[in-house]
Amino acid sequence: MLNLAQVETFVAVVEQGGFHEAARHLGVSQPTVTQHIKKLEADLVRPLIVRAHGSAGTTSHGAAFLPFARTLLRIAGRARAALDSRGLVIGASSNIGVYLLQPLVKAFAEALPDFGPVDLRIAGNPDIARRLEDSEVDIGLMEWWDDRPGFEAQVWREEPVVVIVPPDHPWAGRASVDKAELLAEPLIGGEPGTGTARLLERELGIAPEALKAGPQLGSTEAVKQAVRAGLGVSLTLESAVRDETASGALHALSVRERPLAKSLYAILADNLPAASPARAFGEFLRPAAPAGV
Amino acid sequence: MLNLAQVETFVAVVEQGGFHEAARHLGVSQPTVTQHIKKLEADLVRPLIVRAHGSAGTTSHGAAFLPFARTLLRIAGRARAALDSRGLVIGASSNIGVYLLQPLVKAFAEALPDFGPVDLRIAGNPDIARRLEDSEVDIGLMEWWDDRPGFEAQVWREEPVVVIVPPDHPWAGRASVDKAELLAEPLIGGEPGTGTARLLERELGIAPEALKAGPQLGSTEAVKQAVRAGLGVSLTLESAVRDETASGALHALSVRERPLAKSLYAILADNLPAASPARAFGEFLRPAAPAGV
DNA sequence: ACACGTTACGGCAACCGTAAGGATT
DNA sequence: AATCCTTACGGTTGCCGTAACGTGT
Q1: Do A92 and A76 share a structural domain?
Q2: How far apart, in whole angstroms, are the C-alpha atoms of residue A31 and residue A50?
Q3: If we measure between CA atoms, which residue out of B18, B40, B58, B66 comes closest to residue A135?
Q4: In a domain, B272, yes or no
Q5: Which of A37, A103, A254, B210 is deepest in the core (most CB within 10 A)?
Q6: Both ends of chain A: CA-CA distance in Å?
Q7: Does A143 share its domain with A277?
Q8: Does B75 contact chain A (CB < 8 Å)?
Q9: Which residues bind near strand C, taking a CB cut-off of 7 Å?
Q10: Shortest Cα distance from B133 to chain A (angstroms)?
């Protein structure tokens, strides 16, 4: 099989008109150029270059080979460019993508531009999982992970989860509520697959059936509006409601028995090359600020 | 730079749907396939293949790379084919090409068809020398050689040279003439650059000026016709007049002082790869029948 | 147990750079 | 002498096959 490095050297010799210039142009030593040409000629079993003092030209075989050589290099370059231009595709679940990740994506793209453009795709958690399986995204930032094989998960953050109520709610002046109070209020559900139900069950021992379920809405934004409208209370990532708590549009409380926090995971296929953009982004996330910022 | 062997393995894995089948198809061991894919993924810094039990598929990166991979292999194959189809170009001086070489060319093409088609180009000796310099021919069969650098010469044959006279010539019944007799007859010249004058000077000590020169014709065929027409005698390769001496159209004599013979040379560029068609033909010529056949 | 792919390892060749050696101008 | 290419050589790396090892069916 042809060696493209040798082919590149051949083209350089022809274009630069000499071994010495070709070596300089390619950034290799000059004997390497000699060797490349010799190897290529041996491989093709044809002389390609006529060595004359001061001017290296092609033989008739070399002339016949030259257009193929240029084409091969062009295609190889395009292949690499096509992959590079795809850049890094990050998949993030809605809350993470909307409220947490965007500044980090920007910082990564600026700090390590060599990995090419960064594309952030926001979708529901189950959809991100599917896209990981299908290699549609290179790294997934999710609110749960089920340790399915073929992937490695790292806990990215432990993000606080708070109860939100409208400003005119009886709890509005308090810092926390207890489990019993929570069970008595209609609990508005947000996006499915975010693991909130699992969190309640694991941390507070609340079975899904025990809840007084309010409307099940599809997005965190919808939940916020519902809570403000007085349809019930809800649980969200603290970072998702920071603007509203600051402005007083919503009031956030912790749970007295146990401050809730949700683990956010970064998921990568476990066969990624060490220097891949996805791994680089995973490493970039590691020194992220501790939970709660 | 991309490694085309790895690219070929990648395509094989995709087409065969598995590492095992790809290895069998390529004729390599299965771990080699693993290694090729890993190296290629590391090189492109993207995962290309999704390893699943029973079915290997591409990642999105792999799918993007696949058409480039196929194109690269196709171009590489075409480049090789383009060079192979050029085959071997043999340059031969007129006498050699017309009277001696054709059966050998046929035998070579049949004995070693792997070297591709064989093209025989017949021209004058100086033109063959020029074509060798310009790499327009891969091997030259000539009647002289001046040991210019960059080429290797091997003596192919010592081919007898005879004096030819018409059947009604006074010498027609004899087997030889001597130098003095030769000098007295008009000597018809053939194709320039065949080294006949050099031969006379070296072997018989005849200076060019001492000759009673007849017309200088451009080709051996013209010389034969001139001799038959009685314009003079001439010197030719014995093999060039075998038909005519057999039919009685011409009579051939040797020179008494010293039987004349001309060295025929095979000339190759000295930088040819060992397995090149030109070298193969050169080797093919070596065991040729001894001079005089 | 079987089928598939990966890891480990050892031998061999490829590759590259430095240094020295022609050859030509 | 200067330029250009080739040869020689050693250290490193790449490459491939055999064998042993996971892993999922």
Answers
A1: no
A2: 16
A3: B58
A4: yes
A5: A37
A6: 55
A7: yes
A8: yes
A9: A 3, 5-6, 28-32, 35-36, 39, 53-54, 271; B 18-21, 30-31, 33-35, 37-38, 51, 53-54, 56, 149
A10: 9
